[in-house]
Amino acid sequence: SNVSDKLEWDSAPDHIKEYRNNFLEQLNIAKSKDPIDNLESGKYVVIWQQSTLKLLRPEFNDILTTDGTAIDVANWINKIVKLVSDMGLTPVVKGEPNIEHWRTLDVNHIQHAPIYVNSKSHLSLGPSARFVRDVNPKLIAHAKFHITCCSSVTNELVMAGAPVITMGKSWFNGLGVFN
Fold this sequence. Notes:
By secondary structure, the protein is α/β, with parallel strands linked by helices. It has helices spanning about 5, 15-30, 60-65, 75-85, 135-140, 155-160, 170-175, and strands at about 45-50, 90-95, 115, 130, 145-150, 165.
């Protein structure tokens, strides 16, 4: 059982119920198929990219930097990629929908991990960019766990009952959704 199962979904607005039902249907289809791009089920970790790390909890910034300066998005991703790789798992980065408009991240600085993007037009962002239609449920379905700073995708991760490490300050933490 997860938080999503404990809510009274019948009382939710129709557009919320439709979104939830569509997502869960896509998730169930993805679970019934092999992982995308030859990823191995339970052997990869999805790093959900953020446009900013302003909400990164200080204790994580201190772990990831040696001089106390704020870490930038590309360096955060690369350090998490290394930590995941050191665990013997495959790191996978999921880019945000508006990635091409960001000035805070050059995807060419991301090393040793594919970056899944939301649109074919994002493929021009760099050689590690990959496009797969409806990629979120496909990545969620077979990942060992997920890492975010503070991302709106957490609603899908909660609905899926997926293990999540959230490194940012978020209202979710105060509600005890992520322990």
